[in-house]
Amino acid sequence: MLTVYHTSPDIVDSPDVYHSRTALDFGPGFYVTPLRPQALEYGKRFWKSGKCPYLNQYRLDEDYKKSYRVKVFDNYDEEWLDYVVSCRRLQEREMFDVVIGGIANDRVFNTINLYLDGLIDKRETLSRLIYEQPNIQICITNQEVIDKYLKFIKSMPI
Predict the structure, then answer these.
(1) pLDDT per residue as tens digits for the range 25-53
(2) CB–CB of 53/12 below 8 Å?
(3) CB under 8 Å to 80, separation ≥6 — which residues?
(4) From 104's CA, which of 59, 134, 136, 139 has a CA 20 to 30 Å away?
(5) pLDDT, averaged across the chain
C-alpha cells in the first residue's frame, strides 16, 4: 500500500476521473502524489486565489499494476515531453489507465511553453529539463482503478 495525497479546495472523499480539466500533463484524470511536501506546495495555489486548501490522504493498493495499463516516465526525457505536449494540445496519444511521472512545475512549465510557442527546439528544451528533479504525480484515468484500489483515509485543512 502506498500513501498518496491530493490537494484541493474541497474534501474529496469520493474521487473520480470525471471532474478533471482536460489539458493537463497526463490528460484528464484524478491526480495524486506520494510526496506530501509536493502536495502541500501545490496547496499554495488555492491560498493565492482566496480558497482554503485541503490535503486529502488515500491508500493506493499497487496491485492495480497487475491488471491495468500503466505508463511510467522515470525522467524528463523526449518521451515524457512528447506525451505531455500531446496531452496539453489535446492530441491523440496512447492511452493508459494510470500514468506516473514528473510534474511540469512552474520552471518546467515555462520551458514547455517556450517549446510549444516555437521559441526553443526540442534539443534545447530537453537540455533545460535535464537538471530538474522530477516530482512524482500519478494520474489515474480509469474510474475502475479508483473504485477498486484507492481508499480515502482523511482530509485536513492546510
Answers:
(1) 899 999 999 999 989 988 888 887 888 89
(2) no
(3) 73, 101, 102
(4) 59
(5) 90
Phi, psi dihedrals of residue 87, rounded to the nearest 5°: -70, -45
Q: How many residues does the chain have?
A: 158
Cβ-based burial of 50 (10 A; exposed 0-12, middle 13-18, buried ≥19): exposed
Distance CA 158, CA 45 (A): 12
pTM of the model: 0.87
Question: Could you say which DSSP state residue 19 is in?
Answer: T
Asked if 112 contacts 85 with a C-beta cutoff of 8 angstroms, the reply is yes
List helix spans (H) across 49-153. Answer: 78-88, 106-116, 122-129, 143-149
Residue 90's H or E segment, with its range, is none
Residue with cell 492495480: 64
CA 140 to CA 138: how far, in whole Å? Answer: 6
